[in-house]
Amino acid sequence: MLVLLAPPVCARINVEAAGAVRQGEVLRIAAHEAAGDLEATLAGKTIRLFPGGDGEAVGLMPVNALQEPGTFPLIVKSTGGEELFRRDVNIEDAGFEKQDIKTSRNMRGLSAKPEEVKLMQKFNSTVSDRRFWVEPFARPTPDCMNSPFGVQRLHDGKPSGNYHRGLDLRSPAGRPIRATAAGKVMIARRMAMPGNIVGIDHGQGLLTAYLHMSRIAVKEGAMVKRGQIIGYVGSTGFATGPHLHWSMVANGVAVTPLQWAPEIKACAARAAGTKP
Question: Which DSSP helix (H) or strand (E) runs through 270?
Answer without folding.
Answer: helix 268-271
